[in-house]
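Task 17 of the worksheet. Students: predict the tertiary structure of the chain below and write it out as structure tokens. Keep your answer in the requested format; marks are given for formatting as well as content.
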Amino acid sequence: MASAEQLKALLKSHLEGDDERFFSVAMQVAAHEAKLGHGKLAEELRTLVDEAKSRRVAAPPVPISRPRGELASLLEASYPKARLGEMILSAALASQIQRVIREQRHAGRIAEHGLSPRRKLLLVGPPGTGKTMTASVLAGELGLPLLQVRLDGLLTKFMGETAAKLRQIFDATGQTRGVYFFDEFDAIGSQRGLSNDVGEIRRVLNSFLQMIEQDRSHSLILAATNHPEILDPALFRRFDDVLHYELPDPPQTARLLNTRLARTAVTRVSWTRLAEAAAGLSYAEVTRAADEVLKDALIHDRERIREAEIRAMLEERQKIAERLRKKA
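Model answer:
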């Protein structure tokens, strides 16, 4: 018979959604039964654990109810299947994200020692460098819903209403475990005292600072911005970790192009030369250029893509990016 501590650990890991901890305790129970001479029971328990693990790999996350009522105008729910292996990242950034995933998967064990896993993350960097993709990857790796905050529903012109809606979102983090994603976070997190600051936004920022400080849920809270320099300094202390994103270097760009186009490209394509032509483009811009090349080949019934065609599309993206930079 499982001990009282093992039964409590099983229930706690189930409530927290920590599958790894649940399976570990279940195997401990099986080992304990085997020592007592209950071989048949031990074998049945091991078989059930193995079956549960196989089903977990094969089956998608069970969707929760989508936000209803006023929350439906504040949160947009999705259920990503993205995995970390799909992202091309620097070693340091990949290590940071892996650490968050590991800590979340072992949240129960960490909590037993009076510690908390990382779950409040600030993502900073240029557009198109993987911040939104990171939110999808964390949700996919952990089997959680991705709940993106809709700024058009959150920000209003009525005094006090935005802070009240923000409170609804933080209340939801305790009721439904998920990855709550504040994109374009500088809209509410800009420094207090800026020349264009208005009183209502300052109150919203103060409310956010208090709510994220007081939050004790098991959800992940992510905030992303392209403009970290205008964020209020007090925000950085409220997050467990800050993830910095950069434009891809030539080897990363070459790897991205190779991953997207190698199956349909002719032999002897120099991904290194193409990466040089893509210098300064973000991951998103390089991916878009690759997709445009594939679409063009499909439309014109070309089975193979040539290096010159890839280069031409990258140069087109470079011109678009240059025009956008001039307007900024």
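Marker's comment: Confidence is low (pLDDT under 50) at residues 57-65. The longest strand covers residues 220-225.
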